[in-house]
């Protein structure tokens, strides 16, 4: 489709501004451009049609099945948006006096109390803007803890080979070096490898449970015990909390701190760059290091408080407030019964779809019971037919559904990672399985056809290598 610049026609315009009653101010000549900016000239209807066309080419959970693994792209109830749009929240200024924003402070305080209960933590900050920002914050808590004890030799963070890519990146940004440990044949942490990795230089372990291949590690208590006995702390990546919220708490598994993705587990829309929120919870021994300020409750009301040995601010002001409101609405709506029911639904849906796909002939990287997501290994199919994980993903687009995550985790070379989420019906899962079955049959009959997919989308198969190596980031008008 054409860009707005390409749609531009000289003389087209849509402004209907009244005449200005304020005298015009003439800028000094040295501050003026030599020539007018080359902005597009369009009528209002042309702008409207452009963005409507763009909207039709996007795909979200409101359009169809969206089983993106490790991202929890689930339906977000409209009531969350209604609450976040209340004038009492949207018309606040973040620098108002505390006495004038008691309702907002109460909402923040209530959110932290509920999230602490769900995760088994003692304190929490709402400041981090997203998951990786939360990882970085949690690692700074770990570093501050060791430094406060004079334990400066602890410079290494242990990260499993199945971890999210942001884990090692966040560790390095926080000033640590990374020690990678392998997974065992079942996709879980190799205990012998972990025992060999820990030592007097161990600052901590980064882990998510269930892990990146969708398995709840049966040795989780032993894992955190090994790290603690070595003097390290345990950090929980909350990306997969959707599988266990209300059922099992990271704090009870032995984790010292955790980040949450409110924009995944707690039903705030995400994708396309935002919005996000990555609150960090911690046990009492780390609470004094939390970013400032945190909300506390006293007899006089709610107040912003600076922890004793705070890291300082992790970002401006208090975090993505309206994302927190959406998450608070979600938690209060579901309640004590609904939160675990959501996790149970996610696990049921994943296992149901995994079984159906396995029966069709898809190979599972780790057969057996999974949690909220599972990983298919397309390696054997690729050898037999030439149809890779990429080809299958592209062909799915023709059937009006979003592909699963491709080529992740890295320990499965031809991986398709599927997370159906609890908000999908049995009918949707059956229809998805039927499509996967058609594609599998097509791959075995004519593998070349999948190389040419998709056929029914606005854009066909782009030159992805060229786009990655020589991206066109700026439009240049024709001479």
Task: Write up what this structure looks like.
This protein has about 475 residues and is of the alpha/beta class. Helices cover about 40% and strands about 10% of the residues. It is built from 16 helices and 12 strands. The protein has helices at about 5, 45-55, 80-85, 85-90, 100-120, 130-150, 165-175, 190-195, 220-230, 250-255, 320-360, 380-385, 390-395, 425-445, 445-450, 465-470, and strands at about 125, 155-160, 175-180, 200-205, 235, 255-260, 280, 295-300, 300-305, 375, 405, 415-420. The strands form 3 sheets. A 7-stranded mixed sheet has the order 1-7-6-5-4-2-3, with helices on both faces. It has a 3-stranded antiparallel sheet with strand order 10-12-11. Strands 8-9 form a two-stranded antiparallel sheet. The model has no long low-confidence stretch (mean pLDDT about 95).
* The CATH topology of the largest domain: Aspartate Aminotransferase, domain 2
Strand order of the largest sheet: 1-7-6-5-4-2-3
Largest β-sheet summary? 7 strands, mixed
Beta content comes to 5-15%
Mean pLDDT over the residues: 93
**Head-to-tail CA distance between termini:** 20 Å
Order of helices and strands: HHHHHEHEHEHEHEHEEEEHEHHEEHHH
> Which architecture of the largest domain does the CATH hierarchy give at level 2?
3-Layer(aba) Sandwich
At the fourth CATH level, what is the homologous superfamily of the largest domain? Type I PLP-dependent aspartate aminotransferase-like (Major domain)
Domains counted in the coordinates: how many?
2
Low-confidence region ranges: none
SSE order and pairing:
Elements: H1 4-7, H2 44-56, H3 78-84, H4 87-90, H5 102-119, E1 123-125, H6 131-148, E2 156-160, H7 166-173, E3 177-181, H8 191-197, E4 202-207, H9 220-229, E5 233-237, H10 250-253, E6 257-259, E7 280-282, E8 294-298, E9 301-305, H11 321-360, E10 374-377, H12 379-385, H13 389-397, E11 405-406, E12 415-418, H14 426-445, H15 447-452, H16 464-469
Parallel strand pairs: 2-3, 2-4, 4-5, 5-6
Antiparallel strand pairs: 1-7, 6-7, 8-9, 10-12, 11-12
